[in-house]
Specification:
Blueprint: E1 16-20, H1 34-46, E2 51-55, H2 68-85, E3 89-93, H3 97-106, E4 110-112, H4 122-128
Helix pairs in contact: 1-2, 2-3, 3-4
């Protein structure tokens, strides 16, 4: 399960769309600012996305480090705006357990941690919210 959506061999294929909140992305034309995030989210859902994946830090090789404070500043308002206005499951792409905790508290369905739990608090954080990784 990802939020309310069942996944697996017995269920239809699902589509996840990515919303990039990071100006440092290797593909900078994919960047969406807070002022346009809701419209982008609505468009992606209208086009058939079952899930949205929000990321505020680029993982592209050579990307500059982004502070936790900056990641939070980019991510949480966008997440809140989407969750308050759309009925869609939202995954949050973060490698930081404290950001994951906050995102899950606001209603994110799961965490997309590309670092494979490098933050030692991540697994417990997700388990404490009874969500998935």
């Amino acid at each position: 399960m990802l939020g309310r959506i069942k996944l697996g061999d017995s269920y239809p294929v699902r589509t996840m769309a990515v919303i990039n909140l990071s100006r440092e992305s290797f593909y900078n034309r994919s960047f969406v600012g807070l002022d346009e995030v809701l419209e982008r989210a609505k468009a992606l859902v209208k086009e058939g996305a079952d899930f949205l994946d929000l990321g505020a830090v680029s993982t592209a090789p050579g990307s500059p480090p982004i502070s936790e404070k900056e990641e939070r500043r980019r991510l949480i308002p966008a997440l809140t705006k989407i969750l308050e206005n759309l009925d869609v499951e939202v995954s949050v792409d973060t490698q930081r357990a404290d950001i994951a905790d906050e995102a899950l508290s606001f209603g994110a369905s799961c965490i997309n941690d590309v670092s494979c739990l490098r933050d030692q608090k991540m697994a417990d954080t997700i388990a404490n919210h009874d969500r998935s990784l």
